[in-house]
Design a protein that fits this description.
- With about 90 residues, the chain is of the alpha+beta class.
- It has one domain: Gcn5-related N-acetyltransferase (GNAT) (Aminopeptidase, 3-Layer(aba) Sandwich).
- Helices cover about 30% and strands about 35% of the residues.
- The protein has three helices and five strands; from the N terminus they run E-E-E-E-H-E-H-H.
- A five-stranded mixed beta sheet has the order 1-2-3-4-5.
- A hairpin with a 3-residue loop joins strand 1 and strand 2.
- The longest helix has 15 residues.
């Protein structure tokens, strides 16, 4: 299960594909030069219970750290994960 990333400079997503269909996705929008707004997370029913949503957030955090960016997690799921793992993720919160 490989997490892929796409970013067009305005919007982006971390996602997983199976047979050329996105089965999990976390989307974001850029909010200025050094912030992103995580706005949506969705995981297909076939992947529920496997921690896929957490893996998407982890991939985003790695990307944020590597690119000196900060996140505003407006998506309810991402926001809950950031709160749950606050000590691990506080360095990337806007």
């Amino acid at each position: 299960m490989e997490i892929q990333h796409i970013d067009n400079g305005v919007k982006g997503a971390f996602y997983i594909e199976a047979e050329n269909v996105r089965v999990a996705e976390m989307t974001y929008s850029h909010a200025g030069p050094n912030k992103i707004i995580i706005d949506h997370t969705e995981v297909n029913e076939t992947l529920k219970g496997q921690g896929v949503g957490y893996k998407l957030v982890d991939a985003a955090v790695e990307y944020l750290r590597a690119n000196n960016l900060r996140a505003i997690p407006l998506c309810p799921f991402a926001n809950a994960v950031f709160k749950k793992k606050h000590d691990q993720y506080k360095d990337v919160l806007a």
